[in-house]
């Protein structure tokens, strides 16, 4: 039953004879590569033993395979709805101003309280499966928004109609360190860009974006003084292990050239051909330091050190270790690239590079009184007809005082297309059924918060999913300044 979710694709792959397998494998790599870059297959789908491979992903994979290896589009670029772009960006900027205004009374308080407030303002924003960030029409050399420039990818630089795990962290950090919209703009660019070293003073470029968390995001923000590696030194160092990986940015960019329409997203028809030419010519030869190959050595805390396996197959928290974790912080999920694969194909052969971090979110400590809601625990199982059925249970503080190490992140762990809403006072559901007219709702896949230990020992489909995932080996922690 563990493989039933992928049985259609496995059947498809089992039918060709040996002489056809090389061609089929090439098709599979091309199909998955395109879907990964387009955002339709996310990190939680990137494992050969993931029973929660979504229906959406399976359908896209089958359609991609059936259309052969190239997945050719009618034209090598995509024209966006410029009116929608402007509306989303304007509304997001207005929301940023509102959050910054509401945050003023918290500025003198502990950083954990500030982060908790910011998380509360971003909570329940839907997860975006693709194009959560682009360069918009932002002038590349400007630290604050000035419109009118053409980019390879013109999705908004930031947006609050939807978030993925990285844009959630970036936006939250920029909110934490800013008091005005102009300051937010400048800080967001510092947080999200810098991979190429801002050549020529140009910040907002696709090639300069911090695409790789381990190789770009962490060192760039360490240099700005906003992050400090708390895993390598200090009280956590006695638990730490290391993993090495090789990031090959040039191969990663080159792999995207196979399906330019997934990446060249423009605001006008006239901009399309020029941006395709730029993407094919410039991005084929990015002569920046480290862009050919960079060897990364990342420290991590093994997941087994945080959640200790018991004789009955359950887990208990290593509270002594959890108490040593600094907060607030950015917590990153660490993978072993040799074990991280999709239907037996290693991640580096799909996207053109290894990488050690597949997911990230924010850590902060929060105090609760007896009876306070800590979070809603959502658990999804398969019923007798193999339909995904999710139950939601409120988890409350059972002591006079509870202090929890909370993990906030934008998740895509739940079934795609499921709705999240209050079905009755105090009762929430994660369901494929749309709510009644007038009932406020979001998606089950959204910005959520739960204790870190509960995240690691999340129980789905009859298994401790994160603890059982072979490629997921631990967590890396970067303390926020």
From TrEMBL:
Organism whose genome encodes this protein: Aquicella siphonis
Q: Which residues cross the membrane?
A: none
Q: Which InterPro entries match?
A: AmiA-like (IPR010846), Papain-like_cys_pep_sf (IPR038765)
Question: By what name is this protein known?
Answer: DUF1460 domain-containing protein
């Amino acid at each position: 039953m563990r493989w039933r979710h992928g049985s259609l694709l496995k059947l498809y792959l089992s039918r060709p004879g040996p002489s056809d397998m090389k061609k089929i494998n090439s098709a599979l790599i091309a199909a998955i590569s395109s879907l990964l870059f387009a955002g339709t297959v996310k990190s939680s789908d990137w494992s050969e033993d993931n029973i929660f491979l979504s229906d959406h992903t399976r359908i896209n994979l089958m359609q991609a395979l059936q259309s052969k290896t190239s997945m050719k589009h009618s034209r090598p670029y995509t024209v966006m709805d410029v009116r929608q772009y402007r509306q989303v960006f304007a509304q997001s900027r207005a929301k940023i101003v509102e959050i910054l205004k509401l945050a003023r009374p918290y500025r003198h308080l502990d950083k954990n309280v500030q982060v908790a407030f910011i998380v509360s303002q971003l909570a329940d924003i839907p997860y975006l499966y693709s194009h959560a960030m682009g360069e918009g029409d932002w002038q590349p050399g400007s630290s604050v928004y000035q419109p009118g420039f053409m980019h390879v990818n013109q999705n908004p630089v930031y947006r609050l109609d939807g978030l993925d795990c990285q844009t959630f962290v970036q936006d939250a950090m920029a909110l934490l360190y800013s008091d005005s919209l102009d300051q937010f703009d400048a800080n967001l660019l510092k947080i999200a860009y810098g991979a190429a070293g801002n050549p020529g003073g140009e910040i907002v470029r696709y090639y300069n974006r911090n695409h790789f968390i381990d190789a770009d995001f962490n060192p760039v923000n360490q240099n700005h003084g906003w992050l400090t590696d708390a895993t390598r030194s200090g009280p956590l160092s006695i638990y730490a292990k290391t993993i090495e990986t090789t990031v090959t940015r040039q191969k990663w960019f080159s792999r995207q050239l196979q399906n330019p329409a997934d990446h060249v997203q423009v605001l006008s028809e006239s901009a399309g051909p020029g941006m395709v030419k730029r993407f094919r010519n410039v991005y084929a030869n990015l002569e920046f330091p480290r862009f050919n190959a960079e060897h990364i050595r990342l420290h991590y805390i093994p997941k087994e050190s945080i959640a200790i396996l018991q004789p009955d197959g359950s887990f208990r928290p290593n509270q002594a270790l959890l108490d040593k974790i600094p907060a607030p912080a950015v917590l990153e999920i660490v993978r072993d690239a040799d074990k991280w694969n999709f239907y037996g194909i290693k991640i580096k052969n799909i996207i053109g590079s290894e990488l050690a971090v597949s997911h990230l979110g924010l850590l902060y400590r929060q105090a609760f009184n007896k009876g306070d809601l800590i979070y809603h625990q959502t658990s999804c199982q398969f019923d007798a007809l193999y339909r995904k059925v999710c139950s939601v249970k409120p988890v409350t503080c059972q002591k006079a005082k509870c202090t929890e190490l909370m993990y906030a992140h934008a998740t895509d762990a739940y079934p795609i297309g499921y709705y999240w809403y209050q079905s009755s006072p105090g009762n929430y559901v994660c369901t494929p059924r749309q709510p009644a007219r007038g009932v406020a709702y979001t998606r089950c896949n959204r910005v959520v918060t739960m204790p870190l230990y509960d995240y690691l020992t999340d129980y789905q489909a009859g298994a401790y999913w994160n603890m059982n995932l072979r490629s997921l080996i631990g967590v890396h922690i970067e303390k926020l300044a």
